[in-house]
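Researcher: Quick test of sequence recovery. Tokens follow.
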């Protein structure tokens, strides 16, 4: 078997698996007769280790391996199990999702969760954008808005992650994730006083947060980087969407997709809202969205620390300071 892995420093968060481990996982999933031709580790992801696996006489597949449990933070614990659990609720966009071919949470083969998925057609959207002028990007964002709306129209049983813990009140879910984020940042040796202040603000705004009722399905991490687009001529078309490991139940305006779609404006990006629909301009909704920004900024800070982008940490503190000033 040809085997290629990315070069990583010994202390990096993502730890590659060996060629022997890849073979063992694939044989456990498909039996001893499946011949593996090659396994190539893919760049771009920042949490799981991902490999494109080629088989003799069979379709290629994607192997994803989660971090060891001891390396997972509070707000990123057992994300692969969360992604597995959300699949039935993603039925409205099933045609755009990879099929799960095998999944193993036993830790008998390797002390990490792993799953194998079908390979979707297309290339990552940021790569695909290079083939089209910016003026042609509008249809992509319109499709993304429609896909997001389909997900957000799915109702759920509780607030919080798909696999739990589940909360009856939205304010409990928000306070819990902010508390966990602060603890994770402190464990990483970062200053989390601003996130601790956000916890206090969320506590004071519980009545405002609890105006939200009826949890909806949130994508958790859907934006350009997790969309695949068609190669070749024709309009910029989404062929697949991936990585729903951070999916949860909550109000649509708290979703990462809405956070990202709102961060910048341009004629092309604004096509998102033509299919998704406009955000509420009610003062209470605007105030809640500020709290949601704090949640996302805390997660961004932790990710930058985890992936070694310490030079970008200052930006999260500056933006957090601006949001907290508005909330005060």
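Model:
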């Amino acid at each position: 078997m040809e085997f290629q892995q990315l070069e990583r420093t010994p202390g990096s968060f993502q730890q590659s698996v060996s060629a022997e481990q890849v073979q063992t996982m694939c044989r456990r999933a498909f039996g001893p007769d499946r011949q593996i031709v090659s396994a190539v580790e893919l760049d771009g992801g920042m949490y799981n280790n991902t490999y494109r696996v080629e088989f003799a006489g069979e379709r290629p597949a994607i192997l994803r391996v989660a971090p060891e449990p001891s390396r997972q933070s509070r707000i990123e614990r057992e994300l692969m199990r969360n992604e597995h659990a959300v699949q039935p609720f993603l039925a409205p966009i099933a045609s755009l999702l990879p099929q799960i071919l095998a999944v193993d949470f036993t830790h008998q083969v390797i002390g990490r969760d792993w799953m194998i998925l079908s390979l979707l057609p297309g290339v990552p959207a940021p790569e695909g954008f290079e083939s089209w002028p910016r003026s042609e990007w509008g249809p992509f964002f319109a499709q993304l808005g429609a896909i997001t709306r389909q997900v957000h129209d799915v109702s759920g049983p509780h607030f919080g992650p798909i696999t739990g813990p589940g909360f009856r009140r939205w304010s409990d879910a928000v306070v819990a994730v902010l508390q966990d984020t602060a603890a994770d940042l402190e464990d990483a040796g970062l200053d989390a006083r601003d996130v601790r202040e956000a916890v206090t603000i969320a506590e004071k705004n519980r009545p405002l947060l609890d105006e939200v009722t009826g949890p909806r399905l949130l994508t958790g991490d859907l934006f350009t980087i997790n969309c695949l687009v068609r190669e070749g001529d024709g309009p910029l078309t989404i062929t697949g969407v991936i990585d729903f490991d951070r999916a949860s139940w909550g109000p649509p305006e708290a979703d990462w997709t809405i956070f990202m779609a709102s961060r910048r404006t341009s004629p092309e990006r604004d096509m998102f809202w033509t299919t998704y629909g406009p955000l509420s301009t009610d003062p209470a909704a605007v105030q809640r969205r500020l709290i949601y920004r704090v949640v996302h900024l805390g997660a961004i800070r932790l990710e930058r620390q985890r992936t070694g982008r310490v030079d970008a940490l200052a930006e999260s503190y500056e933006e957090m300071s601006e949001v907290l000033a508005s909330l005060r």
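The CA atoms of residues 135 and 210 lie 41 Å apart.
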